[in-house]
Amino acid sequence: MSDGSRGRDGSDGSDESDGTDNRRDRPVRLRDGNRTTRLGDRIERRALTGLAAATVAVLALVFYYPVGTVLVESVVVDGAVTLGVFADLLRDPFYFGELARLFAGESPLAVVRGLLGADRRLGIVGFTAYQAALSTIASVALGLPAAYLLARFEFPGRRTLRSLTIVPFVLPSIMVAVGYVATFGRNGTLNAVLGAVGLGPVDLMFTLEAIVIAHAFYNAPLVARVTTAAWESVDAGAVETARSLGASPARAFLHVVAPQVYPAVLMGAALTFVFTFGTFPIVLALGGFELATVEVFVYRLARDLNYAEAAALAVVELVISLSVLGAYLRYEARHTVTSRGVRPLPRRPLLPSAPTAREVLPRLGLGVYGVVAALVFLAPLASMVLASVTGGDGGLTLEHYRFLLERQRTGAAFQVRPWPAVRNSLVFAAASALVALPMGVVVAVITTREYRGRKLVDAVAMAPFAVSGILVGLGLLRGLVFGVEVAGWRIAVAGSAAIVAAHAVAGYPFVVRTVAPGLESLDRSLIESARALGASRARVLRDVELPLVWPGVVAGAAFAVAISMGEFTATVVLATGADAYTMPIAIERFIGRRLGPATAMGVVLLVVTGVSFVVIERLGGEYDGI
Amino acid sequence: MGSEGNHRKTGPDANAPVAVELEGVGKRYDGTVAVQDVDLRIREGEFFTLVGPSGCGKTTTLRLIAGFEEPTEGRIRFGDRDVSGVPPEARNVGVVFQNYALFPHMTVGENVGYGLRFSEPPGGASREERVRELLELVDLPGTADRDPESLSGGQRQRVAMARALAPGPDLLLLDEPMSALDARLRERLRLQVRSIQRELGITTVYVTHDQEEALSVSDRVAVMRGGTPEQVAPPRTVYRRPASRFVAEFVGDNNVFEGVVAEGNGGVEAGVGADSTARTVPVDVGGETLRVAVGGEADAEDDVPRPGDSLTFCVRPQHLRVGRTENGVRAEAESAEFLGETTRVHLGWGGRELVVRTEDPLSGTVAVGFDPADAHVIGADPGE
């Protein structure tokens, strides 16, 4: 009140013209002026700022600082700043193949001749890019027919199938790798089937084909998902307009549908390339060190304590990944068509309505595709389950599960026991979700508001998506687990805490991706109404926004849990020597010696992850984000 | 609201205290100007309307008052307190949006009661009593337990109104609250809004692009264009004495003439038409000489345009009489729109368009003329 009355007195004495000097009744009061401001109110008013600051602090502590320390190691040798490590790396044909000669100063012509020669060497980086490119092509080839099927046809189970396209994101990659070992291995289901029909055994293990197929398993659904979403948002009215203007169905597709779907395909391809370029568990399990990618080598160098070279190689990897992403984002910024489909294209029944070529051929194609897709997507999971109950003699058995129980009872301290793995996985998943959820929500809130510098914030917050898990793991290990000296205090973090941090960092971008679209589509006037009614920004988040985007929050939590459950790359670095191994680590330790227990462990992981998926499916609804 | 009394059921008098004052307010986004040079004084208890075409800055002005945006220039005062930097939740304003913005996860009662979580209900009532009271005020008793989804558009808008009023705001801000409703409902609802406003005596700022709506409910209207108010006046003044060509054409149908004050032809004459104090001047418009009443007292020579001055004036369609040859022109009937009670006829005259209101459609060449006193001079510029 004091403010109001002081103001009134002041204006009484002023000689402003008509009206203003005549305030006799009902001074306009401000809401915070007519009651004492409680400390709680002030805290509440600043709550969002506080949460944002906390998120930044957590990110800085468990991501930017650790990663930074590793990067520093790559440019600081014996206390002096040098780019020598990078220069050596770039000139090493082992990494860059023929291109290394270019960096070493040879003429481009000689390099091109070398590249065209029959005995060209790609180097590790070249091979990584090569397998990523092949994987991208395979993923797009496998994903597009699925998008066509999902966007243009109506059939029972279509919605379920559409939701199932998020399964690969929640499937632990090491488990998929086990599935493929069970499929393609010398005694795998593929050879069993081939043997049954009298064909000789093939060995796809440790071949490029196996890696590419496994990558397609992972990324084709991503391509299908983003493409379907774009296809469904094409307005039928636009196609009908084109037809009425004289375009044939093919031309209408070419001129109206394709330009709107194409950017989504490109997005799927760009993301696939980046994911497969940084691939680790699949290549480690299916390729071994013979077919090593950059990430595998970073791991290997780090394991051999060659941190400077590991960090330099990780930086090279990061630069390539970010260039691809950056190029895509620049393209996207120029080509984004924001057409919200008012009325989607009508879906056709899956059964042909007439025996004409136009009706039958596309459906026949989809039939063939269905068989291929079933093989790619179902074979590894089926093989894994099958292998887990198949004995050495080929008969059904539970010996592998018994082995797990046996190992649990009698295993030595240095051996991997199943129960700690399951327990650790669950504890880490719960803990990292508890960290990732508020972080993700806060970042989603911050990045869905309009302000200058929003893009930068977005990039800083989303960087963990692109940075190598090995690098994060290494940074946490070197920076936090081994301890840092701060003002005379030695701060060290337990390995398990570092794993939780790494999982939270890996998981929160998924929370952002499931929560942000909901927040973005919320009517701004809902928030403004609440604020005008007296709610602080944080109260609006609690009372209005979060209740309305709740399914997205739950889905984000399920994602965070599933990501943590399946995370392998950073965990394998941090779990070294510690008791903090998780289910994926256990699988990897088993897989080298015997497949049976690995598959049995894989089934356990599948069941636990499956529960997460059911939660997403029940509460999450459809999400077109990643 | 505190004491209601003085202003009840009538408009505020001219020296009611200023509730909201905008002084040189401007808002820029990345180089584009949304509003600029806005100077407004809205009085306590006043129903004040911002009207203008889309993009004129009326909604931005409202959002600046609400505190959803901060001005980049100038200052806004509530009473005599500068509200710069005061967040919306501390401004004690009630806001109603075009799309209702009811919280879909709350019942009608929870919506109306939401603001009471942050302040005590006025008049010592309990929360439940206050919610019931407000729902009765907007004529929706007994709907507290219903889902907003189950209400019609008009009902939702009234719930939004009740929600905005429940905490007893000092200021009610309405942002195109009727735009999503059909024409008939809109007319009924705006009368209801007006009567509630009168009953509570609450200072209200109303934003609309519909000039008819603006004229029908407001105590005063600010016609905005390009981010700045062009005229701030009571509805009748805005309609009868538009301050600019833009206002003349935006508010209702109008015929705007641009010409040059002529020599001779009687020159300045006093006492023409009903108003014996007004004087008329002859104006040459496209070769025709038309007499136009000019304002000012008989002895205020300065106000009278001189021969050679360019002059813009307007005549409302209903004042342009068909068949009147005196002080008029001959024009060609071009098209007609049947509007029910009347027919709007478009006439062509020397490349200009004229609009008249008639009982019957017209055809061919018609004479139209007007009483000089019915012409309103918008502006005069001294000639060289």
UniProtKB/TrEMBL annotation, chain A:
**Membrane topology according to the record:** Multi-pass membrane protein
Q: Which UniProt keywords are given for this protein, alphabetically ordered?
A: Cell inner membrane, Cell membrane, Membrane, Transmembrane, Transmembrane helix, Transport
Name where it's found.
Cell inner membrane; Cell membrane
Q: Which GO terms describe its biological process?
A: transmembrane transport
Q: Where is the composition biased (Basic and acidic residues)?
A: 1-11, 20-35
Transmembrane residues, as ranges? 47-67, 129-151, 163-182, 194-218, 261-287, 307-329, 366-389, 426-447, 459-481, 548-575, 595-616
GO (cellular component) term, any one: plasma membrane
CDD domains in the cross-refs: TM_PBP2
> What's the main place this protein lives?
membrane
InterPro entries per the UniProt record, alphabetical:
MetI-like (IPR000515), MetI-like_sf (IPR035906)
Chain intervals for the UniProt region annotation (Disordered): 1-35
Which ranges carry the ABC transmembrane type-1 domain?
125-326, 422-616
Q: Which family does it belong to?
A: Belongs to the binding-protein-dependent transport system permease family.
Q: What is this protein called?
A: Thiamine transport system permease protein
The protein's organism comes out as Halorubrum aquaticum
From TrEMBL, chain B:
UniProt membrane topology term:
Peripheral membrane protein
Top enzyme class of this protein?
A: translocase
Q: Which GO terms describe its cellular component?
A: ATP-binding cassette (ABC) transporter complex
Protein location: Cell membrane
Domain ABC transporter, residue spans: 20-251
Keywords attached to this Swiss-Prot or TrEMBL record, sorted alphabetically, are: ATP-binding, Molybdenum, Nucleotide-binding, Transport
EC numbers, comma separated: 7.3.2.6
| Catalysed reactions, as listed in the record | tungstate(in) + ATP + H2O = tungstate(out) + ADP + phosphate + H(+)
- Coiled-coil residues are none
GO MF annotation terms? ABC-type tungstate transporter activity; ATP binding; ATP hydrolysis activity
- Similarity comment: family membership: Belongs to the ABC transporter superfamily. Sulfate/tungstate importer (TC 3.A.1.6) family.
What does this protein do, in the record's words? Part of the ABC transporter complex WtpABC involved in molybdate/tungstate import. Responsible for energy coupling to the transport system.
Oligomeric form and interacting partners: The complex is composed of two ATP-binding proteins (WtpC), two transmembrane proteins (WtpB) and a solute-binding protein (WtpA).
UniProt protein name: Molybdate/tungstate import ATP-binding protein WtpC
